[in-house]
Amino acid sequence: MYKYDWVSGGYDYLQDFGMSPRNSAIAGYIIAAAKKPCTILDVACGLCPIFPFLPEKIITRYVAFDNSEYVDSQMPYKGLKNFEFYRLSFEDFFSNASIKTGSFDFVLYFGMYGGYDVYAERLERLLPYTRKDGYVILEAIDEHISDVLSVMKDKHPGYNEIASCSMQVYGNTLSGVTRERFRSIHLYESNQSK
User: Fold this and answer.
1) Cα 22 to Cα 43, 102, 192, distances in angstroms
2) How many of the other CB atoms lie within 10 Å of CB of 35?
3) What dihedral do alpha carbons 80, 51, 68, 166 form, nearest 10°?
4) Residue 12: which domain range?
5) Cβ-contact 43, 91 below 8 angstroms
6) pTM to 2 decimals?
7) What is the CA radius of gyration of the chain?
8) pLDDT in tens, 94-149
9) Would residue 1 count as lying in a domain?
10) Number of neighbours of residue 154 by Cβ within 10 angstroms
11) Which of 57, 173, 175, 176 is deepest in the core (most CB within 10 A)?
């Protein structure tokens, strides 16, 4: 088993230098789209590799969750004033009444894996947490992005895709995870308030 696979409890390689273009692209979408300091919900966040790419002044609240013990033990941002981390599964986060989530300017779901039904179920639960004038950033490896795009088109016509990029990332730690080098990132804007 390659040491950067999920067996370690969190996709460690997302912190790798080779992932900088991916992390920069996602942060760039947030910086370009944010009309004011913003709130962010990072779903299944891992070690929040885009966080260091965002200027501190742009974030008023960053809520992240992941069910990994490894991520919980290694999360470097827990002490920051505007950062909240919860060690919870996807299902537990959304059913936990004690967490005051509210709505967010940006909802980030870098689900990468799963077919149409998985994305449909998750996005059905996630998108209500997006502000009426908010944004959703979705990422998948190339073989799954058509499912993500189909779910958004079929089930969520209240969102318009306004930017996207596909890239191949490469770095020392990515040598054993070839299929994960190919990334497709899509920025959607909610048009529910229009």
Assistant:
1) 17, 28, 28
2) 7
3) 170
4) 6-190
5) no
6) 0.88
7) 16
8) 888 777 778 999 999 987 677 899 999 999 999 999 999 999 999 988 788 899 99
9) no
10) 10
11) 173
Give the C-alpha separation, 16 to 22, whole Å: 11
Residues forming beta bridges with residue 40, ordered by sequence position: 62, 106
Structure token pair of residue 172: 């020392």
CA distance 125 to 122: 5
- What was the pLDDT predicted at 193? 55
Show Cβ contacts of residue 122 under 8 Å, excluding neighbours closer than 6 positions: 43, 90, 109, 111, 114
What tokens does 104 get? 């967010």
33 in Cβ contact with 188 (< 8 Å): no
The answer to whether residues 186 and 139 touch, using CB atoms and an 8 Å cutoff, is yes
CA distance 34 to 163: 14
Count how many domains the chain has: 1
Structural tokens at position 123: 């996005």
